[in-house]
Amino acid sequence: MPATVRVGVLNDMADSGPGSEAMVDWIEREVAILRDRGLIPYPVEFVHAYGLGLPSGTAEAIENAYLELVQQDVVLVVGPGVSDNALIVAPLAERARLPTLHWSGAERARGRYTFQLQGGSHEEEPLVIARHLAGLGSGRLAVVHDGSPVGMRLLTTLAAEAWMLGLKIVAREALAGPGEAEQVVARLMAAGPDGVVFLGVGASFEPLAQELRHVGWEGQGITNSAGMAGLGGTSAADGWSYVAMHSEANETFRRLCADAGPQITTASLYARGHDLGRLVAQGIARAPDISREGLRLGLEQVKWLPAAQGEEGTLLGFGNQDRGALHGRYLVIRQWQDGENRSIG
């Protein structure tokens, strides 16, 4: 009996969360494709660990779940999907010398053994937002942000890029819940902005958009990848733009959608699952052996694969010092109108 590739799956969001389960389905699909071609001669086994991580759970739960996988002799870990939890896992992966591929937006959660399939980017999304607004002629920005580590990191990066572009942040407000929206919007409007930016994980976005509509504001509104979760599907957010990771111009993405037919529900997760599955399967196939070091080397040899995420021409791959999988224009601006969204650049 040949050796078995044991892949750990770290679910940090829900006990039977669709995100984690969907990702395993994609990995299995891509592994099967390469096995049929004779490129993966080993059985692949998935070992699951669950810990309800931040923001609703605890760092300890993530640490315990990860160490559980370490003790079960997995040679690769896939997950977590939340940025705060990826930052917790990164030093654990380095200590255990266990290659770990997370799919969060935390660029800082990279290392020799810690690989990232970008789930947005705390460092690059604000650049895309600022440059988009500058191109529209919006020079006076009001910024609303979560008080979370994600919201604060996005804010810091946006402020730096706004300064480089000559944009002025005329008002800045933290928003924790719907009860604060009326007062926050009143202070924003007093500053006379021509663009409003929301930065965060999304829970505060809808009450902000509703209050802005209530007061009749008609300027440019844009949010980070919080909009990918479908938060813009409400009428209050019509006209708002957001940073996304899928585009109908991407040929690989179009083929996926055509193959799936009506069963496709969340386009962004569908594209991400495809890309994650390909990275894992290709890493296994290219590994010189099925040890942890072998899987690290295998992932480093994955290069120049067409990605389903991003604009046409976006590529997947890693390298000796490169731990971010997506290369090229992987961030896209989309806009909500009448409950539908479309790519606008």
Topology (elements, then pairings):
Blueprint: E1 5-11, H1 18-36, E2 44-50, H2 59-71, E3 76-78, H3 83-96, E4 100-102, E5 114-116, H4 125-136, E6 140-145, H5 149-165, E7 168-174, H6 181-190, E8 195-199, H7 205-214, E9 220-223, E10 241-244, H8 251-260, H9 267-286, H10 292-300, E11 305-306, E12 315-316, E13 326-327, E14 332-337, E15 340-343
Parallel strand pairs: 1-2, 1-3, 3-4, 4-5, 6-7, 6-8, 8-9, 9-10
Antiparallel strand pairs: 10-14, 11-12, 12-13, 14-15
Helix pairs in contact: 1-9, 2-3, 4-5, 6-7, 9-10
Short description:
With 345 residues, the protein is α/β, with parallel strands linked by helices.
Descriptive keywords:
5-stranded parallel beta sheet; 39% helix; 7-stranded mixed beta sheet; 10 helices; single chain
